[in-house]
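Example 3.2
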Amino acid sequence: MLTKTINILLLFVLATLACAQNRDSVTGCIAGNVTMEFKPALLSGKEVRYYVWNKVRGVNKDPSFAKFEPRFSPQLEIYFNEEHQVQNRIFHIPEKPATLYLTDLRKSDQENYTLIISYFDYIGVPTEYIIDLQVQDVCFEKPKAVGKCAVSTCYTGENGVLKVLKTPSSTVQAVKGYKQVKVCDDKTSGSYSCCNTAGTCLVQVFQESM
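Structure, written as tokens:
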């Protein structure tokens, strides 16, 4: 009985490890861009027939939204766009067949994405890889040094009257999705607040010499 229990626990641990190896998480800023790089362990010696991406959408709904068949077309096929809302926002490079680039992130993009791979001349369980995409409502990019300037971007999502950028001089600037911040002298150095419609703000300190 003890041996059987140990074997069951071992199988559970191995299954958990296998799941962890086939799953990743990615975080992006609302109105920004994100790269979803799926890294499935491909079957050795087998040619990929097609890649299919699924997104959780509820019961009795086809989760598939994109398909790539490398042998038949260099283009990514996107469908069910009315519900997935990814048309013109997803980019795909054939040289990196398992990677998707999603632009103009929306809160509705936050979900589990699954890549399913089918092979030629193979009957068995398809290869899968899952990415959990998290979309932050408001965020500041990490400042980058450009010459003597500190440059960043405030992301707040879609247009709205209450989405603002507050500067050290107490001025308030409207943010339409995103707004670049560029600090190049002491007069504009200090704390900037990036705020969304819910009043959530992130504070970033900018200095002339980053």
